[in-house]
Amino acid sequence: MKQLGFTLALLLVCFVATAQNKINGTVKDASTGELLAGTNVLLEGTGRGSTTDISGNFEIRNIPQGTYDLRVSFLGYTTQTLKITVPNTEEINISLEQSSIFTEEFVVNGTRASDVTPTTFQNIKKEEIAKLNLGQDIPMLLNYTPSVVSFSDAGAGVGYTGLRIRGSDQTRINVTVNGIPMNDAESHGVFWVNMPDFASSVDNMQIQRGVGTSTNGAATFGASINIQTDTRQDEAYGEIDNSFGSFNTRRHTVKAGTGLLNNRWAFDARLSQITSDGYMDRASSNLKSYFLTGGYYGENHVFKLNVFSGAEKTYQAWEGVPEALLETNRTFNLYTYDNQTDNYQQDHYQFIYTGKINQNWKANGALHYTYGRGYYEQFRENDRLSSYDLSPVIIGGESISRMDIIRRRWLDNDFFGGVFSLNYISNDARLDAVLGGGINRYDGDHFGEIIWMQYADNVNIRDRYYDNNAVKDDRNVYLKGTYEASEGLFLFGDLQYRGVDYRFDGLNNDLRNVSGNVSYNFFNPKFGLTYQTSSGNSLYASYAVANREPVRRDFTDSPIVDRAPQAENLQNIEAGIKANTSKYAYNVNFYYMNYNNQLVLTGQLNDVGAYVRDNVANSYRAGIEIDGAYNFSPQFTFGGNLAISRNKISEFTEYIDDYSAAEFFQEEITYTDTDIAFSPNVVASAILDYKPIKNFEISLLNKYVGSQYMDNTMNDNRMLDAFWTTDLRLNYALRPRFVKNMEFTLMVYNIFNKLYEPNGYTFSYFLPGEGGAGRELTTENFYYPMAGTNFLAGVKMRF
Predict the structure, then answer these.
(1) 3-state class percentages of the chain: helix first, strand second, coil last, to nearest 5
(2) Do residues 352 and 303 make contact, with C-beta atoms less than 8 angstroms apart?
(3) Domain region containing 57
(4) Tell me: the pLDDT tens digits for 624-644?
(5) pLDDT tens digits, one per residue of 158-171
(6) Which of 38, 201, 642, 722 has its CB surrounded by the most CB atoms within 10 Å?
């Protein structure tokens, strides 16, 4: 008993001694004295470590007595190892030297805005993305950024998702990855479902609202999203990231990297799988992806190869829920055929160079290739054989012209080209100029197959009932620069030329010949100024022009009677003030976006009965955006944003199908000064962060979206109701001995179980009135409901 008591006492003394031992200090830039937030500080051999806070401070507790190597590393700086002895009562002050190895920050420099660029933008760091990333697509992770409305077909953020910024949909938002265009060349959209778990390979993003600065690819007509993928990791690592949650949602991600080998080479890899049953009936998703990157890092040059791919299989939930079923059968899905699925794979290859030519010049260039292929399969009940250019089937002397059919509609496309930028900075650093541009080609095949018929006919399974090809060449060059005219006053100019050649050949899916070609040449100037006050505030104002060609469907569905769609034009004014201090930060921005010939759905039909878009002469968006954050204390931070806007079409003509008369026709109704569809007048977010103890964070995330119309008639019967949702996030990190870092995250979405719909569509028609007298207007609304209270939980371990 004495030995046991002595042993326990000794253990208690050791425990108390260990608990009282700690080290703390600061990390800063050796040349500038800037405090370095986010620096990794590791006590080798113990599994204990820390990361510097916003003030560059770190602290490591509960250290046994002894002598250790303290390893301090930060991207772009030379790793430093110090010998320390514990206990140590003195603060450790560490100064890191900038690395002689050239960093990757210039990869996206050509298409990004800087602190003195007079436009409206927001930078999003890897740490901010990681806090929300439990497997949902990028649009859902951006839901709390200014003027953003996100939505999901399946209702839970996995599968087909999308977003609107300032009311502009995905086809009007330019997206680049490492400066390389990601928008589909034909539809101008970005299908995030083809990039599952891509957020796990993103280092940072910049969202520019409005026209922004010149970029590559599709025209920016509402905003641009500029993404930079993972940058070099100096230390070898392994990472396992798993999450699970409602609707049988699962995400499994494995990452690994070699660190810097021989002070020159680094390789990284990620493998992911995401599955979900979806909130909507049968809205399942099975998503797979990988990301591979490797590079050579010299003192003045970086060569890097990225290869990434995504494959998706999703059950179609495209039709939405009819208004009549919204209260009684909220998860209704029209499709019941067991293989009513969308199947697509997209492979990306990027070879990137960035380097320092001399003291004044830097260069960036990239070659890229994307291969996409896939189909969606549909069961068509009692379909017309004439829709497939097939004659009636004769059985027992009976002519059968309609029957059940299963079809597949295919895409098989190649997208390739190159982008570049040259950056010049004068010796006195007053002039910062970029010459950039790109040349890209899209070559896409569209074709359809019948894979099953109710009654046999002389049709083979790979016969194509339609087949057409489209080739699109896109080229652009821009010259932009910032000049410091006097202390604090920066002048900005940006001139871009963009040319588009587009040709079509073959039969469309409605069996019309769509052969033809069209060309456009656009000039997009941008000017502005920024003034930085002595107190650190920035005032800015700019004027920018963007021009945009119609999408593929506008061409293939035309002519509307005898006229083809015209290109769209946007003139954008931005003005605002920004401030950033250690206690608070804010940005107040005013904008005016004037559209000429904006293309919208009107209800008008082409010669085979398909609904087409038409140009409306004048429309605009105008508003004020406020975003900011305030640190009440080290424990409490409040942040948020508010956008109040007015979005109007001067004159709009609606075409309504009329089935009430003996002969079908369309009635025209003209409206003036109506709201643009899917453009809420108020969008707001509010986030409260509370850190009760070290490494534990509780966040309340609120989102408000005002009411919005589903078409341009401003009819209250065709409206999405306003909604306010609240999410809860819990995040806890620790550093056990067996791993470098372990992080637990719990997201409870929609904690108050709000029933809401951020997306939908509508159409109307006239039918004969009761008893055959007169006519009645019938409006059908369809909605895409989001899930009630649901959750995702995840654990991430880094080795």
Answers:
(1) 10, 60, 30
(2) yes
(3) 2-96
(4) 999 999 999 989 999 999 999
(5) 999 999 999 999 99
(6) 201
